[in-house]
Amino acid sequence: MKAIYFQEHGNLSNVEYGELPVPTIAADEILLAVKAAALNRLDLWVLEGWAGLNLEMPHVMGSDGAGVVAAVGEGVHDFVVGDRVAVNPTLSCGKCEYCTSGRDNMCDHFAIFGEHVDGFMAEYTAVPARNLLKLPSNVSFAAAAAASLVYVTAWHSLIKRGGLQAGETVLVVGAGGGVNSASIQIAKLAGAGTIYVVGSNSEKCSLARALGADITINRGEKRWGNVIFKATARQGVDIVIDNVGAATYGMSLRALKKGGRLLTVGNSSGATFMVDNRYIFGKQLSIIGSTMGTRADYVKVMGMLFNGRLHPVIDSTIPLAEAKTALQRLQDGDIQGKLLLTFADN
Ligand code: ZN
Description:
With 346 residues, this protein is an alpha/beta fold. 28% of the residues lie in helices and 26% in strands. It folds into 2 domains: 2-148 and 293-342, Medium-chain alcohol dehydrogenases, catalytic domain (Quinone Oxidoreductase, Chain A, domain 1), CATH 3.90.180.10; 163-289, NAD(P)-binding Rossmann-like Domain (Rossmann fold, 3-Layer(aba) Sandwich). Strands 3, 5, 6, 9, 10, 17 and 18 form a 7-stranded mixed β-sheet that branches. A 6-stranded parallel β-sheet has the order 13-12-11-14-15-16, with helices on both faces. A 3-stranded antiparallel β-sheet has the order 2-1-4, with no helix packed on it. The longest helix has 21 residues, at 141-161. Residues 92-93, 95-96, 98-99, 104, 107-109 line the site of zinc ion.
């Protein structure tokens, strides 16, 4: 089968497009004929690698995929060959203390497709049947692949971990990335009050407004934390969702109201940085970490996609063979929404 993979960690020059064997499936798995795959910044971090990440090589990239069931393991009874399916990107054991209490994104054997196991930038991927949802005929493979990781991440952080209530003000730090677009839409659907977005350029700010942001601030603006503070009559906002980290964390704390919550869902600009602790205790802030989401969150957000309440933003679709060009665009950061890979008939 055709696949996008690497055999050694490194940069984009390590990414290869070529033939790999079709994966074999276990009794509880299905073989997915992938019809669409979406890119995430996670793909680039996994390519680079980190201490403790020990992958079997070659490693197939990609955390988001959707497609058609091409074969079923002997223990699978809920799906048949030909079913159109979406895939929950998070793998969990289903048995540990966390899984049995509905917190499966804390599973002792937590894994993500494309991060710990082979992903969806290939014509076929082995997927546990418990990760599948049947895809209604009115929802495209591209929409399902584009939606999975970002909506589940945004929902889990804003609603489950952040406890966003109707009427609360929200600041989303960043506008072009998939999780940011998803966060704006979910905040809007949850009935948030004013939604503020800090974006890196005017195109990204326009996109944010189209998705439901009320006030956008260009990140070129120095000290945008103060701008927010002034725009809220020196009150600040109830919730900030920040996946940028080092470059924005201080400003995000500054922009919060007394008693506010900072939802940290990643650190694309760096993981280690100084924090002015006076903001945290002085304003009695809560810093709440969140990553991915649970199976229940996945079912919830995909239901909202299926009934037309969520609309993933797709920047462009690119054939699998040109995935490297797409990864380069992702690295350069010049994107609005998701980059999708399409597959020739397989
Ligand atoms: Zn578990």
